[in-house]
Design goal:
The chain contains nine helices and no strands. By secondary structure, it is an all-alpha fold. The chain crosses the membrane at residues 20-44, 79-99, 111-132, 266-288.
Length: 298
């Protein structure tokens, strides 16, 4: 039954538009939920936290154990919070869209359209900023990585049972070099400028000094992004001391390749989401401006 003046009947076109908005909101809600889960994973993932010193280009040299809590929030955790926030906002907007579509309250439809418009503008601005700064990020990545070795690397393989002290920068480089089979940022010679590394072999503290970290040498061990055991690198001592078989490639190309792969995925995903949001915004405006009465779906 119609409310107010007019026939109260909704044309087929308007019903179809409303159906599309409902579908779009389902997509928004799912995207928001996925971002929320990913953000929570990024925030809580201890493996990712170990790379924050390199991402932040944090060159602090204070000796800390791997279990010591960080005093400030890392860039990775901030990213996790950002993803959770974006996901939460999209889910709230989707719920408003559902409410506006089913109950057809004009004020809710106006708020929904306004929020979608604001989100689109923010996303477009962020994408423009993101891609215009990519060249700068790539340009600064190598010197920043080298700086973490020069000022932050203190040596000693990160390990669980051994009491040897290390720091977050060293842990990050150990994991990257061991898993990606590379050495240093540009190459192994970056370690010639490590000002805070005493080159002591953690497996033989009274023996010959290391030329390069043990993780720069190949060992017969499975890939692991968890805490490394110093005993794993017993066979790498000759390599690290005498520079025999040290990885010749640097880690910068591997990290850059990983970043580029994620960048492409982000770009494609962002474009698809913005197109869907733009269509939802247009259809929401059409519903707001329609001249028929607002009724609930029966």
């Amino acid at each position: 039954m119609a409310l107010g003046k007019g026939s109260g009947d909704m044309s087929f076109g308007m019903k179809f538009i409303r159906l599309l908005i409902i579908i779009f909101n389902i997509i928004f809600f799912l995207i928001g939920l996925i971002l929320l889960i990913i953000g929570l994973y990024v925030y809580l993932n201890t493996k990712l936290q170990k790379f924050s010193p390199l991402i932040n280009a944090n060159t602090g040299t204070s000796n800390v154990t791997q279990d010591q809590p960080k005093q400030s929030m890392s860039t990775i955790r901030k990213l996790g919070i950002a993803l959770m926030s974006i996901g939460g906002i999209l889910m709230v907007v989707a719920l408003l869209g559902f409410l506006g579509s089913f109950k057809v309250f004009k004020i809710i439809q106006i708020i929904y359209a306004a929020l979608i418009g604001i989100i689109i503008l923010v996303e477009v601005g962020f994408i423009i900023y993101f891609f215009t700064t990519q060249s700068k990020v790539k340009k600064n990545l190598l010197p920043n990585l080298q700086s973490t070795i020069t000022n932050g690397f203190i040596g000693s393989v990160s390990n669980g049972s051994n009491s040897s002290k290390t720091n977050d920068v060293t842990i990050a480089w150990d994991l990257i070099q061991f898993n990606l089979k590379c050495c240093g940022a540009s190459n192994k010679t970056d370690y010639n400028f490590a000002k805070n590394w005493n080159h002591i072999n953690p497996l033989n503290t009274t023996g010959p000094l290391l030329m390069y970290p043990l993780t720069c040498c190949p060992v017969d061990a499975k890939t692991s992004w968890k805490t490394l055991d110093v005993k794993t690198f017993s066979s790498a001592q000759t390599c690290a001391v005498q520079d025999k078989g040290v990885y010749s490639k640097g880690c910068y190309p591997e990290l850059l390749s990983t970043i580029s792969a994620y960048t492409k995925g982000v770009a494609i995903g962002s474009i698809v989401v913005i197109i869907i949001q733009l269509l939802a915004f247009i259809f929401a405006i059409v519903l707001v401006r329609r001249k028929t009465d607002y009724t609930s779906i029966k």
